[in-house]
Design goal:
Belongs to the SecB family. This protein is of the alpha+beta class. It contains two helices and four strands, in the order E-E-E-E-H-H. Helices cover 23% and strands 36% of the residues.
């Protein structure tokens, strides 16, 4: 029986964030343009860790927000080519990390004195790196 590579989310953090407040708001619901891309990063020389990078931009009549958010995963076994192509890495890992990004953005907008902007749920099964609603 083949040994399964166990993974764990080591940490998440904001690499960069740019928030621009444009004008006072008059309504609680906003039509927000959402653009999020995900990228898998495997650093050379590190064989038991990988990174999910979410690169997002959100725009509406009240604010513009750009963010780079990283989630670092550790593995119990060395990462090989099969692991890099696995459904777990491509779909499940982003699904595990996404709620942390979602929480950060809603907290940021709420603490900025705005209605909290809550990202919708996403389907992470697309191959091209774009995140589908």
């Amino acid at each position: 029986m083949e040994k399964q590579n166990k993974i764990h989310l080591k940490r998440t953090f904001v690499k960069s964030v740019n928030f621009e407040y444009k004008k006072d708001f008059t309504k609680d619901e906003l039509d927000t343009s959402v653009n999020i891309k995900k990228e898998l990063i495997f650093k050379e020389g590190i064989d038991n860790e990988y990174i999910i990078l979410f690169d997002g931009s959100f725009e509406n009549e009240i604010f513009d927000l750009k963010i780079e958010f990283l989630a670092i995963f550790g593995t119990s076994e060395k990462i090989d080519a099969d692991f890099k192509k696995s459904t777990f890495v491509k779909s499940s890992s982003p699904a595990i990390a996404f709620p942390y990004l979602r929480s950060f953005i809603s907290t940021l907008t709420l603490n900025a004195g705005l209605p909290p902007f809550i990202l919708p749920a996403y389907n992470f099964t697309k191959e091209n790196g774009e995140i589908d609603e």
